[in-house]
Amino acid sequence: MSGTLDVVLRLLAVFVAFIALPLVVGQTEHKVMAHMQGRLGPMYAGGFHGWAQLVADGVKFAQKEDVVPAGADRRVFQLAPVVALLPYLLVLIAIPVGPGNAVGQFVDAGIFFVLAVMGVGVLGSLMAGWASANKFSLLGGLRTAAQLMAYELPMLLAAASVAMAAGTVSLPGILDAFHWWWVPWQIVGGLVFFTAGLAELQRPPFDMPVADSEIIFGAYTEYTGLRFAMFLLAEFAGIVVLCALTAVLFLGGWHGPFGADGLGWLWTLLKTAVLAFVVIWLRVSYPRLREDQLQKLAWTVLIPLALAQIALTGIVKVAIQ
């Protein structure tokens, strides 16, 4: 009975984090962009420093009418936001956040599981683009498919280099095998993984599938109200998942620098927060890539770098043995 209660409490904690952390990232993005770009609007809602901006956005989405286009495939159209959001909850369950395998549910082949499930989330955009009966939405969905095919491979190769170094595909096992000298050794793989993850999330400067100056808002053009809010929540949840995975795979997760592991899960949270700030910073600082630049970056830069990282990892492993 106590074992069942422990599992329930851990899953409940993951669910609370899944709801709270993406909202915190969304609120932070409002504030960071307001400061970096001189936007005063998000500073006023609710008084002190615009603390109620997130509440105002939620009320706005809840008040909007839920419209389904007359020519849309209604069932697929309505299911797409759920498909886009739910996989990130499943991924959070498998990410270890503290010592002693502090995780919602242990998954033996953790790397394979989280990367496979994250790929499912992109299907939400494809479903939305196809079902909306809108040419701009369809074009956004096709761009999403092309982007997924280009950036899934370097992301997998970068994660494979860490699995080779640790000798396991289990996420807790990777953390148990982690050493701080891995950081400079695996830094190229970490940059490839993080960059490819941004592209899969369609975050700037890789936001070609939702380029508002070209295709209105891509696959999400016809969505309103809470369904549109679910896509936004999926985006922020994806940021949390990507940053947490990068922290676990390449930055030691709950391991602190110089052996200072006493903070435990707070180290994971701190590293995730810093990486999330970098994601927001990139949105503010860099312009959108062209489609040819986006594809060229994946096939001619990231994939060769990931393969070079795997080769280096193999050489180091053989030398150590």
From TrEMBL:
Molecular function terms, GO-annotated: NADH dehydrogenase activity; oxidoreductase activity, acting on NAD(P)H, quinone or similar compound as acceptor; quinone binding
Reaction(s) the record says it catalyses: a quinone + NADH + 5 H(+)(in) = a quinol + NAD(+) + 4 H(+)(out)
InterPro entries: NADH_UbQ_OxRdtase_su1/FPO
Spans through the membrane: 7-26, 79-97, 109-132, 153-175, 181-199, 228-252, 264-285, 297-320
Main subcellular localisation: membrane
Presence of the UniProt keyword Oxidoreductase in the record: no
Record's bilayer topology term: Multi-pass membrane protein
UniProt key word Nucleotide-binding: no
Localization annotation: Cell membrane; Membrane
Gene Ontology cellular component terms for the protein in this record: plasma membrane
Enzyme class: translocase
Pfam family, one: NADHdh
Gene Ontology biological process terms from the UniProt entry: aerobic respiration
Key words, A-Z: Cell membrane, Membrane, NAD, Quinone, Translocase, Transmembrane, Transmembrane helix, Ubiquinone
EC number: 7.1.1.-
Function: NDH-1 shuttles electrons from NADH, via FMN and iron-sulfur (Fe-S) centers, to quinones in the respiratory chain. The immediate electron acceptor for the enzyme in this species is believed to be ubiquinone. Couples the redox reaction to proton translocation (for every two electrons transferred, four hydrogen ions are translocated across the cytoplasmic membrane), and thus conserves the redox energy in a proton gradient. This subunit may bind ubiquinone.
Self-association and partners: NDH-1 is composed of 14 different subunits. Subunits NuoA, H, J, K, L, M, N constitute the membrane sector of the complex.
Family: Belongs to the complex I subunit 1 family.
Record protein name field: NADH-quinone oxidoreductase subunit H
Organism: Streptomyces morookaense (Streptoverticillium morookaense)
